[in-house]
Amino acid sequence: MRGGALAPAEPLPSTRLLAASLKLARGTVVEAYEQLIAEGFLESQRGAATRVASTLSVAAPTRRVLKPTSAGGRCRLPQSSLPEPAARFAQIAREFSPLPAVPFAISVPVGLTAPADIWRRLGNRIRARGAAAPAGYEDPKGALPLREAIAAYVRKSRSVQCDVAQVIITSGTQQGLYLASQVLLGARDEAWVEDPAYRGLTAILENNGRGSAMIRVPVDEEGLDVAAGMRLAPHAKAAFVTPSHQYPLGMPLSMARRSALLGWARTHNAWVVEDDYDSEFRYEGYPFPALQSSDPDRVIYLGTFSKILFPSLRLGYVIAPGDLADAFCGARVLMDRHPPNADQHVLAAFMAQGHLERHIRRVRNVYAEHRAHLIETLGELLPSEIAWVQPGDQGMHLVLWLARALDDREVATLAARAGVAVRAVSPMFSQGNGRPGLVLGFGGFSRTQMEGAARRLAEVIRNAIRRGAKPRRK
């Protein structure tokens, strides 16, 4: 019927004849006819033949060429037949596919960086009884014990000024960035975004209809160039920044730039979205306090536990100015009502009993050692005219710049074939401003694993140089 082989109002054979022809029980055919009648494909009148519904609209038959999937299983339609947004979101799925848990993937909780066994024991006890037991719908802002623990933690560790009512639990920083874009930006509003920037942020703005409003502001050794932002878009409504540890390059936003950024926001009634994603991991000196501490009424503060504990936890938080807290809560309701409840209570107990601070101290020491050893190893394996490390003293990754002759995306692909997980830096820049480089995470890998991966990566880079043009000197 759908293919046009049976026309509207065309009579069908009786159930008895069709059953005999197909060698089926008559009851099976009767059930099939009754189902098709119920769905509106057939019509039947007492004393008359069952017919194809006269009102059935049949599209002209088309020939569809089906292509096998990459898995070799079910066939799929050609891309040209899919909705335009589907192609964009499929590309995002490919771009954000997780790296395998091998060096140099970021935040892999193995070995010394895995949470202590107390997490498992605490989780088993709290899920078995009490607040983490199955329940009905909960507060969209999240579990109160966790929000209380977060408010106390950020006041102590990051000088953030807030109360519990301003804390909204999210499924990680990615959701916090999405909520901020929904709450802060109108249809024609512009937003400053660092250049380079976290690809998860630029993908959000590109795919929610705000790509043209994204103003890419260059970054230098002091972080976001506020003066450049004011020249490019002085009346922007928001600035998305990573002031403690610029992603991906690593430098902090200088005190002078911080003052200039907040001054611009006050003057133009704009908002600053502070992504403080790995401020806990500074290896030399003391970190700057959160930008939010200097202007809590103008800064939306984002934090996450995915990096400091483990990514599959999928818990983060937004600390919104009081006037915006209900707006962020409402935007979150439309996404998934509220975050899963059980792990919130486990994390609240983990923090309240002091386990999180002990975990951070332990992991910080591991990462500091891994970072120093990786920088030394790469320096021994690769001459500086081919590759060199971006200076920095914070974070869970480093950037390895590559000679201009190299395509970092191709190098990342070749490295994956050699069993090394890296991300290319150039896609994080705006079009035409990219530089070839690789993001290398420390993870919880052993020294032997790190050294072996560094050798394989160095060989991939040397081979790429041999195949390509002569590299420029740094």
TrEMBL record:
Q: Where is the HTH gntR-type domain?
A: 1-55
For this UniProt entry, the molecular function terms from Gene Ontology, in alphabetical order, are:
DNA binding; DNA-binding transcription factor activity; pyridoxal phosphate binding
Q: Kindly state which keywords UniProt assigns to this record, in alphabetical order.
A: DNA-binding, Pyridoxal phosphate, Transcription, Transcription regulation
InterPro entries the record matches: Aminotransferase_I/II_large, HTH_trans_reg/aminotransferase, PyrdxlP-dep_Trfase, PyrdxlP-dep_Trfase_major, Tscrpt_reg_HTH_GntR, WH-like_DNA-bd_sf, WH_DNA-bd_sf
Which SMART domains does the annotation name? HTH_GNTR (SM00345)
**Domain of life assignment:** Bacteria
| SUPFAM superfamilies named in the record | PLP-dependent transferases, Winged helix' DNA-binding domain
CDD domains hit by this protein: AAT_like (cd00609)
One Pfam family name from the record? GntR
Q: Per the similarity annotation, which family is this?
A: In the C-terminal section; belongs to the class-I pyridoxal-phosphate-dependent aminotransferase family.
- Quote the protein name from its UniProt record: GntR family transcriptional regulator
Species in which this protein is naturally found: Paraburkholderia phenoliruptrix BR3459a
